[in-house]
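hey can u run this one w/ adenosine-5'-triphosphate bound, need the structure tokens asap thx
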Amino acid sequence: MAQEDLFKKLVSHCKEYGFVFPSSEIYDGLSAVYDYGQNGVELKNNIKKYWWESMVLLNEEVVGLDSAIFMHPTIWKASGHVDAFNDPLIDNIESKKRYRADVLIEDKMAKYEDKIAKEVGKAAKRFGESFDEKQFKDTNPRVLANQEKLDKLHQRFKTALEDNNLAELKQIILDEEIACPISGSRNWTDVRQFNLMFSTEMGSMAESASTIYLRPETAQGIFVNYLNVQKSGRMKIPFGIAQIGKAFRNEIVARQFIFRMREFEQMELQYFVSPGSELDFFEQWKERRMLWHKSLGFGDENYRFHDHDKLAHYANAATDIEYKFPFGFKEVEGIHSRTDFDLGSHQKFSGKKIQYFDPEKNESYTPFVVETSIGVDRMFLQIISASYCEETITKDDGSTDQRVVLKLPPALAPVKLAVLPLTKKDGLPDKARGIMNELKFDLNCQYEEKDSIGKRYRRQDAIGTPYCITIDHQTLEDDTVTIRHRDSMKQDRVAIQSLREIILEKVSFRKLHEKIS
Ligand code: ATP
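ok here u go:
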């Protein structure tokens, strides 16, 4: 299936099965804002649980926080967001569509990478077992030509970003003949900076009201609570503070479903370390976060690190974890070594001493920070993209059928168990309700008696339910049910008494956590 078609299918699947709806849909929607439906909210909560537990439960030295969205406006001055939280914006004069200049250039670089990957793929097929990828890349003229163009462009782009040279960004777009994907035109405006923060007024009287910002990241809530947590928790460096919460960015381009939203949720860890040790911890957290992603089992080859071309004003090292979405490798998580920039700056702006007395070194210092920052919504899209499968299945009578199945890791699935009486008669529904009433305390169960059993299985496949149990006439005689496994579609007969234990073991987060600890 073409990757664009796959993406369209994901979007409509999310809507049809109650995962994600456009916000304010009956009023024609609100751009880049989405609501999560009955299954979406469960999946989202499970993603957050996987992250939260992997941070706070598994690491003695990591504690949680829930800070307010509204904060003192000076915080955003101190953090540098008022002056520097900008994206370079460019408009196409023909289509009147707005783009991020850096993203247009990155997409062009991805095109060169694709061309190289295609050549390599073709050659790998042609040469079979004897294919030597490195040798091919080092000698094939088409690969070498594209690699040279890519390297040149990369270097030029990097320098333009480092120098904040907006005219050069435009010149690159012109020289690379980048056209608007909508109009095909190469008629562009100049590039200008655009601040992504939303502001609002706090206070009822116009004269006393002050401008405050909707936070564009959750991290600052952690920094300004550093002293509170360190003191009240008697935390010793190195230690971390984890937080999950909403963030808001007035994104220039918002055309990729929940990949880029104006209201979204972040899961951030700030890990406080002694000066000089930050790059070691940066490397450690890179590996740990990659393992967290790969433990979900979606294929190690679909992840990669991508180091930043331009370091943010606060960072001395930064990388992204990228996943291969239907529209290419894109960032899911950022890992940044933020130095002592934020704590140092809050110290300056607030006039409060923000220091740590290190009993081992017998000295006080401003801690350095390593941050891991991941978007819940982007992670949600990653999981849906990776789980969505269309399969042709052969039925008992030899005929074939199609099914759409979300192969979600069982711990993340919205519904863990579907309870299905074979028919609506003979006391089967009562028996099924009895089982459900027992299991609902521990598992998210769904009861369904409408339609044929085959149709009900399909509906559960489409929302990723890992297990379905069917209550039939034999159940009334010997208290057993059939349990059907989503991926293999195999069925076993098990005693009702052992159901709770069997399913709890399979859907527990413990399995995921064991892989990363
Ligand atoms: P991008 O380059 O895609 O704009 P970023 O580098 O600005 O992202 P960070 O500031 O590092 O992103 O934010 C950390 C994480 O928060 C990202 O990896 C992403 O998962 C998520 N995120 C950031 N912006 C958005 C958004 N507009 N919508 C959804 N998730 C977002």
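The chain has three domains: 40-70+215-404, 88-195, 408-516. anyway lmk if its weird
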